[in-house]
Structure formats: structure tokens, C-alpha cells
Amino acid sequence: MTTLTMAGLTDPGRLRPHNEDCIVLHPEIGLVVLADGMGGHNAGEVASRLAVDVMTRHCVSALAAEPDPAAGHDSEPCGRERDALHGAIEAANTAIHEMAHHNPECAGMGSTVVAALFQDDALCVAHVGDSRLYRLRDGRIELLTEDHSVVQELLNRGLFTPEQARQSVSKNLVTRALGVEAHVQTDLSAHATEPGDLYLLCSDGLNDVLTDMQIERLLAAHGADPNAAARRLVDAANQSGGPDNVSVILVRTDGRFRRTRKTAQKLLKKLGNA
Questions:
Q1: Taking Cα atoms as reference points, which of 128, 142, 150, 113 lies closest to residue 249?
Q2: Pick from 25-29, 39-43, 228-232: least confident
Q3: Of 31, 139, 189, 246, whose CB is crowded by the most CB atoms within 10 A?
Q4: What is the crossing angle of helices 43-65 and 261-273, to 10°?
Q5: Vertex 148 angle, CA 83 and 201, to 5°
């Protein structure tokens, strides 16, 4: 059994007075969550923190309640992880929506989210909005999520080129976000992992100013040390103007990761005492 190597960093950037991003890493259960909040009067900070907190508690509670599957007898790859993440996003959406409804100072707030839950030789990815998850494998980067944004829809319809998308004034308009409506549609996907994979979760403060090729070069050069790679990515975003908050989470898989119910129960107890 091996452990996952994780690193995370969040930074307000050079132009924003507040950081409305929020991240959490729990290597002991293979969970990472990144949220990018939106809303005036610091409501974005409230939304992203609420998203991360609610999702973490829901996932940990779900995993702590499930018996460990017999080796090789999972009915569906990532089935439990998919259910945990889906339920967590629904719970976070409800929490943000209700807080915005009952607190005038939070009206209109919302948050994007991208989360990953690792188990065995696979990971489950869940996302809403335009926060992303990339994979670097054999030196090549691949985007494993698709933005829920106006610009992405125009790209899909062939009405924008990638360069037009990067330059568009509408590139930050999302078509889905947590808390905006009573219900939200979640994109869920499962992926096989390989030893040496490097996974990057990021807010749009990174990929709005760095191209995929620039991100690939930085990850290929520094990915052996996820902490150093995280620092390099954030520094590069700020050196490119740092117009937005920027957050990154890096996860390196060095082999098979196995979470146990007992580990989830220990974390749940710790969260309950926090």
C-alpha cells in the first residue's frame, strides 16, 4: 500500500483584496476539494468555505459508514466514491442556497467546485463550474473536466477558436455554480490511475493566465516535488499579472492507494472535535 503525495496552495493574486478560493487536502482518505467563490461583500469567501466544509464532512461521513469492500469485489469502479461526491455536492449546493436565501448580505453568492476522491487504482472526479482538473502522464497534460461556461459552449458549437476563447471578455461567465439554484447538475467521471501520474486541480486564476502548454512544462519540470510545483504555478500566474485569486492542488500517485473505513472514521471524529 502506498500513500498519495499531495500539496496545495492558494493565493489572492496581485489585484484582488480578498481570496475567495478555498482548498482542502485529506491524503489519509484520498480526498481533495477546491472551490472558487463568487459574490459581493466577501460572500464569495463564505460560499467557497461552506462548499469545502460541507463537502468534506459529507464525504467523510459517507465513507466512514460504508464497510470495506472485499479485495477485487467492488460492484462498480469508483461506485462508492461517485455516490459520496455526488451527495456531497448536493449537500453543499443546498447549504449555500439556503444561506444566500436567508441572509441578505449573502444574496447572489455561489461557488464553483472541483473535487477528486482516490481509491485503489482509480479516482472519481466531480465538478461544477469552471474550476479544472488536469492529469500529467508521461510528460503530457490532459484536461479531464469541461468548463461549465458561456465560452465553452461557444467552443463546443464551433463559434469560437481556442484563442478567441482565451481573449473573450465573457470567459469568466459560468453556466453552473453551487448555490445559485435549489438544484445543480454535477459532472462525474471515473479514471484509471497509473504510478507516476500527477493530477492538478486549479481555479481559473491559473488557467486564465497560463496556457495548457505552459502548465505542462512547469509540471513536467517540477512535478517530482508537488510542493515546489505548486509554488512555481502560483508564482507564474502572479508574474503574468495575477489578476485573480489562484489556487492549485497537486496529487501524485506512486502506486495503489487503499483507504479503509477505520481511517475515515478517525477523520470524522477529528472533524467533529474541530
A1: 113
A2: 39-43
A3: 246
A4: 140
A5: 65
Look at residue 42 in the predicted model and tell me its pLDDT. 76
CA distance 274 to 270: 6
- Going along 27-161, which residue ranges are E strands? 31-38, 110-119, 122-128, 132-137, 140-143
Domains of the chain: 5-273 (3.60.40.10)
Residue 7: its pLDDT value, please? 98
Report d(CA 111, CA 215) in Å as an integer: 24
Residue indicated by cell numbers 449546493:
93
Buried b (16+ CB within 10 A) or exposed e, 142-155: eebbebbbbbbebb
Non-local CB neighbours of 40 within 8 Å, separated by 6+ positions: 108
What is the C-alpha separation between 126 and 243, in angstroms, rounded? 26
pTM value is 0.94
More confident residue, 12 or 78: 12
Asked if residue 109 has pLDDT above 70, the reply is yes
Residues 6+ apart with CB under 8 A from 81: 117, 118, 119, 122, 123, 124, 190
Which amino acid, one-letter code, is at 73?
H
Phi, psi of 33, deg, nearest 5: -140, 135
Distance of alpha carbon 62 from alpha carbon 117, whole angstroms: 12
Question: Residue 228: CA atoms inside 13 Å, Cβ hemisphere, count?
Answer: 8
The reported pLDDT for the residue numbered 171 is 77
Q: Which residues contact 4 (CB under 8 A, 6 or more apart)?
A: 27, 30, 118, 251, 252, 253, 254, 257
